[in-house]
Structures are given as structure tokens and as C-alpha cells.
Write a structure and sequence with these properties.
By secondary structure, the chain is an alpha/beta fold. Helix 5 runs parallel beside helix 6, helix 7 packs parallel to helix 8 and helix 9 packs across helix 10. It has a single domain, classed as Alpha-Beta Barrel (TIM Barrel), CATH 3.20.20.190. An eight-stranded parallel β-barrel has the order 1-2-4-5-6-7-8-9, surrounded by seven helices. Helix content is 37%, strand content 14%. It is globular.
């Protein structure tokens, strides 16, 4: 394990202050699509369970329906998680909410499907917000494919709708971080709502130091890389981000021992499918430091 550093933002970031003040203890355990290792992802069941298991925030994915509603679903297509077919944006909200969002979930490689027929639906963003207690924050990821003009336009609409929702309900600003892989979406959020924190999601197409530089130079507030490359570059990336006032939230970390290692490097958030196991592993490691200290 690397020398324990802990999370230390070295540059004040006023856009993040609501989040860092409200959840001062880091790393944040961020439930990836809810408690998605245990129940069907991006369902109200997954988000409520994540809250019950002590998650600081939940991560959720936003897509647009054919009739302009913002729903919470990761994939552009319906087949992996539901009994439906086709693309999300080809369906109305009413059509999507007729589908079984627990249809394909299995914990035993397809031997059983324990959530089939239990009336789990694809929720809207507002339904998810209503289901969460106020002590749980949200990392809302806007799905937008930069090389697909039509999908990118849908991402822009989601960004505009999300900002409008925050303007109608200002208390949401205190518990919301908006993220995306598409910089154009983040720039739209920043233009429409300069005080709303935004984070850049990345995949390992370039070295981590180069990726964090993209986020810093763009003036974003958070950097969301995968866990790949942290053995080599983690300490330097965290230091660079914190010096510029960015938080670092790493995805998707499902091994408790890796969550502890990333905590030792000083990352700010652990995005995981197993929030309770992750939270307990981190707390146990922190408790052992106190005992040894």
C-alpha cells in the first residue's frame, strides 16, 4: 500500500464547496448506478438500497426519450437490462415504463433472474431525485456520444433540461455534480449555470497525467478516470488535480482492497457497484490507522 496521503484540496473551488462542506469526509463512496452489484442498475430499488448502505452519493446515467423526457438508463439500447428492444430515444416515456427493468439481472450467470416480474421500471430523473433522502448526493452523468451528431444533440437537450430543473429547485445545486465523457455537454452546463460543478469522465485512451491536464485546462471541477494506471501515475495525478482545485473520483472500483489503496493515494471518490462493502473496507482501514497512531 502507498503511503497514506488522504484527500487534500490545495486550491479553493467555490463550485464544489456545497459538496465538500456537506460531505466533508472523503473519500466519498459513490454508488455506481446505485447498488448495482446487488440489484438491477439505475432502478429506484438500486438507489434506495445505495442510500440505505451509507453511500455519500449515487451515480446515475441520463438519456432522452423520443418525447423529450430525461430517463435514467446507461445503455443507448434496451436489450442488456430490459425485456425491450431498440434504442432508448426511439421510444416514448410511456413505452419505456412498460418495460421490465429487472428482466436481465442475474447473480448466478443466468441460472435465475430474481427481479423479473417485480415491476421495476426505467425511472425518470425526477423520480430518482424524489426517491433519495436529502443526505445523499448525486453524480448525474449525461450520456452523449461525441462522434454521433444526433446523440450529441440529445446530450445538449439533457444538459439544458438538467440546468432548468436546478433553476426550478435551487436546493438541488447543493447535492449535484454533473459529469460526462463529452466536453461539449459540460461546456453547455457551465455556460448555462456557471456555479454548477462539472466533471470530465475518461477512458484510458491516453496516459492519466495527460487526461487530468485536459480537465484542468478546461476549467472543470472533477476528474473521473478509470482505475487503470493509478499504480504508476496515481499520486501525481491526485496532486495535480488537487493543486488545481479538482476532485478525483475513480470508477469502477469493486475490489475493497483496491478502494483502500486509492483512498491511501488521496482520491476523493470511489465509484463502486458495492457501496456497503467498499465503505466498510475503507472505514476499517481508517480505524486501523487511528489505532496504530
Amino acid at each position: 500500500m502507498p503511503k497514506w496521503r488522504g484527500s487534500q484540496l490545495m486550491s479553493k473551488n467555490l463550485r464544489l464547496q456545497h459538496l465538500t462542506d456537506r460531505w466533508p469526509n472523503r473519500p466519498w463512496v459513490i454508488a455506481h448506478r446505485g447498488a448495482s452489484g446487488l440489484v438491477p442498475e439505475n432502478t429506484l430499488t438500486a438507489f434506495v438500497l445505495a442510500a440505505e448502505q451509507g453511500s455519500a452519493l449515487v451515480e446515475l446515467d441520463l438519456r432522452l426519450t423520443r418525447d423529450g423526457h430525461v430517463v435514467v438508463l446507461h445503455d443507448a439500447s434496451l436489450e442488456r437490462m430490459t425485456d425491450g428492444q431498440g434504442l432508448v430515444h426511439e421510444h416514448t416515456l410511456a413505452e419505456l415504463q412498460e418495460l421490465d427493468a429487472g428482466y436481465a439481472f442475474t447473480l448466478d450467470d443466468g441460472a435465475t433472474y430474481p427481479f423479473r416480474g417485480l415491476h421495476l421500471r426505467i425511472p425518470t430523473l425526477q423520480e430518482v431525485i424524489a426517491s433519495l433522502p436529502p443526505h445523499v448526493g448525486m453524480n448525474a452523468e449525461i450520456k452523449s456520444t461525441p462522434w454521433d451528431p444526433s446523440d450529441r444533440q440529445r446530450g445538449q437537450v439533457i444538459a439544458e433540461d438538467l440546468v432548468a430543473l436546478v433553476q426550478r429547485h435551487p436546493s438541488l445545486r447543493e447535492r449535484l455534480l454533473v459529469s460526462s465523457f463529452d466536453a461539449a455537454v459540460l461546456d453547455t452546463v457551465r455556460r448555462l449555470s456557471p456555479n454548477l460543478p462539472v466533471g470530465l469522465c475518461t477512458v484510458p485512451i491516453a496516459p492519466l497525467p495527460e487526461q487530468v491536464r485536459w480537465a484542468i485546462e478546461a476549467g472543470y471541477d472533477a476528474f473521473h478516470p478509470t482505475d487503470r494506471g493509478f499504480d504508476e501515475h496515481g499520486a501525481a495525478v491526485v496532486t495535480a488535480a488537487h493543486s488545481a482545485g479538482l476532485v478525483v473520483n475513480v470508477w469502477t472500483v469493486d475490489r475493497p482492497e483496491q478502494a483502500v489503496e486509492l483512498t491511501a493515494l488521496g482520491v476523493d471518490g470511489i465509484i463502486t457497484d458495492y457501496p456497503e462493502a467498499t465503505r466498510k473496507a475503507i472505514q476499517q482501514a481508517l480505524d486501523s490507522l487511528v489505532i496504530r497512531g
